[in-house]
Input
Amino acid sequence: MLAPGITKGPSGCSHAAATNHTSDHRHHRQRSKARHQYEKRKSVGLCAYFGCAASAATTHRYCRPHLAKMSESNQRRSQSRKERGLCVSCGRRPQFWGVRCLVCRELFGKNGHPLPLGARRALKLYRNAELQFEIEQRQAHARFAIRKLLADETIRGNRARALYLYAGLDTGSWRTYGEVARVMNLSHERVRQLLYNSKLIVSRMLNDGVPWKPLTREVTQRAWPKTQLIQPVTDSRSSINVQASNA
Output
């Protein structure tokens, strides 16, 4: 059922659809004709503006008067878009960190990057600050868990002292393995062995939300001695014949 005021044509399609098709076809023909005239005038060196008999300016496709008019028109359009807060290139999207929108910045920006240098620098500083804040939060939670372990005497002896120095509970700043080794007068490897199980316990308490890299339990394999195959001793003599000679 057609809407009121719309009738079918001879071919069965509605009158409005036929009108739209005819209008699109006419518009396409006009554009093709204009494009043909533009290419023809450009090839002979005339101003590409239709109806202008002047020659085109050097390295341009229009004459000087028309170039000046186009420049003034572009300036008025850009100023109007700036006053409305729209992109000066497309005029459809709002401006972003300048006079162009985010999409047009990618088309006209240097190196094809949509963000300006100032915005990229600000984002980098923000990411670094966010990462530093996360590290400080993990260090604070780890220190609290270590204080709890030391207060409960879950870890004792050299392991407790190494963990105390490593977390920097006396100075407030974390120490490296080398600094702990110098204070305890031990080797770097020995300090790592003392701290390994303690760090595993703290990692389980905080669900791996710790300021160091994830650890896995070391599985020590017992070095069994190589088995030696015992070769059977065989005698080449299958039987021993003892002959007694009578004197």
